[in-house]
Amino acid sequence: QVQLVESGGGLVQAGGSLRLSCAASGRTFLNYAIGWFRQAPGKEREFVASISWSGSSTYYANFVKGRFTISRDNAKNLVYLQMNSLKPEDTAVYYCAAAPPGAEFGSWGQGTQVTVSS
């Protein structure tokens, strides 16, 4: 089982940047793919980006391609989401989640609020 804690959210102006962190605990962290998701008020949770256990494969939602970058440091049990060129529509609670091999994302963190002002 992996436990996840997000951090790094905050208030930023449009065009600015933030880096979110997802800290994982548990010896099996290395076996898990990690994903970032977000949920805006009144909307369903949506996929943002994910990274394979080795970091060799990354996937992005179309609306963040070229602006967001996901990375991981397995030595530190950390996954990052670098967010550049932020837009007001990026305002949401951002969650990280872990997916063991062959399974769907679960083990959700508590989320971190990102607010982008226009």
Please provide a written account of the structure.
The chain has strands at about 5, 10-15, 20-25, 35-40, 45-50, 60, 70-75, 80-85, 90-100, 110-115. The protein is mainly β. The radius of gyration is 13 Å and the shape is globular. A 6-stranded mixed beta sheet has the order 2-10-9-4-5-6, with no helix packed on it. Strands 1-3-8-7 form a 4-stranded antiparallel beta sheet, with no helix packed on it.
Helix and strand element order: EEEEEEEEEE
Kindly state the number of beta strands.
10
- Assembly of the depicted chains: single chain
| Helicity, as a percent range | under 10%
Q: Hey, roughly how much beta strand do the residues contain?
A: over 45%
Strand order of the largest sheet: 2-10-9-4-5-6
CA-CA gap between termini: 40 Å
Uncertain regions spanning at least 5 consecutive residues? none
Radius of gyration: 13 Å
Shape: globular
Provide mean pLDDT, rounded: 94
Biggest beta sheet attributes: 6 strands, mixed
Put simply, the count of helices is: 0
Helix-strand category: mainly beta
Write the layout of secondary structure elements.
Elements: E1 3-7, E2 10-13, E3 18-25, E4 33-39, E5 46-51, E6 58-60, E7 68-73, E8 78-83, E9 92-99, E10 112-117
Parallel strand pairs: 2-10
Antiparallel strand pairs: 1-3, 3-8, 4-5, 4-9, 5-6, 7-8, 9-10
